[in-house]
Amino acid sequence: MQTYRLEQPGNIEWLELREEAVPRPGPHQIVVRMRAASLNRRDTMILNGTYPLTPRPGIVSLSDGAGEVVAIGDSVTRFAVGDRVTGSYFARWIDGRMHPGIVDQLGCTLDGMLSEFALLDEQWAVRLPDHLSWHEAATFTCAGLTAWSALTGAEIPKPGQWVLVIGSGGVAPFALQFAKLMGCRVAAVTSRGEKTGRLRALGADLVITAAETPEWGMKLREASGGIDLVVETGGPATFAQSLIASSLYGRIVLLTVQDHIGKSVEIPGAVYQRSLVTISRLFVGSRNGLEAMLAAVATHRLRPVIDKVFPFAEAPEAYRHFQQGDVFGKVVIDSA
After folding, report:
1. Which helix (H) or strand (E) holds 230?
2. Is 78:125 a contact under the CB 8 Å cutoff?
3. Residue 189 — very low, low, confident or very high, per pLDDT cuts 50/70/90?
4. Residue 166 needs a FRET pair 20 to 30 A away by CA distance; which of 17, 46, 256, 327 works?
5. Angle, nearest 10°, between helix axes 287-300 and 171-181?
6. What is the mean pLDDT of residues 147-161?
7. CB of 68 within 8 A of CB of 120?
């Protein structure tokens, strides 16, 4: 089989394509014939050496992927040959709260999905909805579950409440789609005016272009009466405006500061003094959360947004396309 391994962070040239033997499963393992994988911001951070967790040297890249079980160990009970599966981002986090003993991640400390075959413990995988294509099925593990966790965390937004999404990369389109499933109204902020129509087509009720309205927080607050939940993916550059846009008892779920090394999220004192906003932090989610999200995806036959698909041999080009930043939805690598 062919597989991509990252020898060390810092350069796309260290993402090496290798010929290796197809793995054989141990007693509790499954072998998955990968059909597609997809990129997330964390993958480019791992590549660039800016990720907070140090990757294992020679790791198989990417947390997100989908494929078909082709072999199982003698003691496997969760899956059968022929099942369609994806991996769980935090492979050992089944449910409950995260703790230091279960921080291992596919594509970072555990071999990931950028390979023709993947070897997984049966506890690290979940079944996929039947209506999804392989390309679509490969997109949910990181960005999809992150968006789902932001919306279904401590307090699920009520129908009619306002949710704000920022950008149009991996997390924001998922958050927009999930919020609409919950009956919420959605405001979206985009850096480029040409994306406005596509965000409205996904269901956004209100779209603001940041280039035209840099101080968009007050405009959103006036138009909505105050945002009830902000899925904050912009990090330091957008946090102040998100706080201004929020309602008195709004919530901001802070997902990332992206890869802005040395930059901090700053809270404007005067704005915060007038606010009772709750600020929380999350990082992807558990296997049980992934299963719950995929059950909702199956029930509503939701389909993710895909920006572009690259052949397996052009995986480095997929990284370069993703890193240039002007994407709408998920960047997928075909492994079939």
Report:
1. strand 227-232
2. yes
3. very high
4. 46
5. 60
6. 93
7. no
Sequence-ordered alpha helix ranges (H) in the chain: 41-48, 134-137, 145-151, 171-181, 196-202, 216-224, 239-245, 269-273, 287-300, 315-323
334, 315 Cβ separation under 8 angstroms: no
Question: Locate tokens 């009720």: which residue?
Answer: 205
- Region 132-138 average pLDDT: 98
Predicted pLDDT at 39: 97
- Please report the pLDDT score of residue 44 as a whole number: 93
State the residue for tokens 């919306």. Answer: 151
Q: What is the pLDDT of residue 269?
A: 82
Q: What is residue 268's predicted lDDT score, i.e. its pLDDT?
A: 79
Domain 2-142+284-334: CATH superfamily is: Medium-chain alcohol dehydrogenases, catalytic domain (3.90.180.10)
Statement: 154-281 belongs to CATH 3.40.50.720: yes
